[in-house]
Design a protein that fits this description.
Arc Repressor Mutant, subunit A; Tetracycline Repressor, domain 2; single chain; disordered N terminus; 203 residues; mainly alpha
């Protein structure tokens, strides 16, 4: 059963409290990995009671995935907004997206994702949830950019495939998250101009 609210602990309310809880969850993931994250440790870091967390996220898994998803929402929302501006090419939209995601993964986001990936290798059920709730919606954002590119004549229709977001994600995750090596802006430009655009542009 959810723990009762600890008297005198809650100092925040509403959106501010949820933000503090999610930030605390990411920090706990980055510091000690998925296995070390507990509702108690998150509550202590967020300076709230366990009841405040349980009322919003009944399980640790839901809390972790929601927090990580929220962390990466910013760059992806930016990509969605870019679709509304006809002056932005498909190439520039993709490059802006990978720049934002790389910057985010180079900080606490990368440490948090590293711990989540480690857990997904150990737990098949968790891996399925992670794929469905986290990766699949983000693949669709890039698929949307590709479909927009088709309408603009910048992408050939048969190139609208999950292979493109998987190639980009795999490259960035391997370099930044797995190998813990920075990737320069020049390398991101090379990735987009030398690999992604030739693979999707009309022949």
């Amino acid at each position: 059963m959810p723990a009762a609210e600890e008297p005198g602990r809650q100092r925040k309310r509403g959106v501010e409290l949820e933000r503090a809880i999610k930030d605390a969850t990411i920090a706990e993931l980055a510091c000690g990995g998925y296995g070390s994250v507990t509702i108690e440790s998150v509550a202590a870091r967020a300076q709230t009671g366990k009841g405040s967390i349980y009322r919003r996220w009944p399980t640790k898994q839901e809390l972790v995935l929601d927090s990580l998803g929220d962390l990466l929402a910013g760059p992806l929302l930016g990509a969605v907004e870019m679709q509304l501006d006809d002056k932005i090419s498909t190439r520039d939209a993709i490059l802006t997206l990978v720049r934002r995601i790389t910057k985010l993964m180079s900080g606490l986001g990368g440490d948090a994702m590293r711990s989540i990936m480690g857990e997904s290798l150990r737990d098949e059920a968790f891996c399925g949830t992670f794929e469905c709730d986290f990766f699949d919606p983000r693949k669709q954002v890039l698929i949307g950019l590709l479909e927009r590119g088709v309408r603009r004549g910048e992408v050939r229709p048969e190139a609208v495939s999950v292979l493109v977001p998987e190639m980009l994600a795999g490259t960035l995750i391997h370099r930044v998250v797995v190998r813990r090596r920075p990737i320069s802006d020049a390398e991101l430009v090379e990735l987009v101009d030398g690999f992604v655009m030739p693979a999707i542009s009309p022949r």
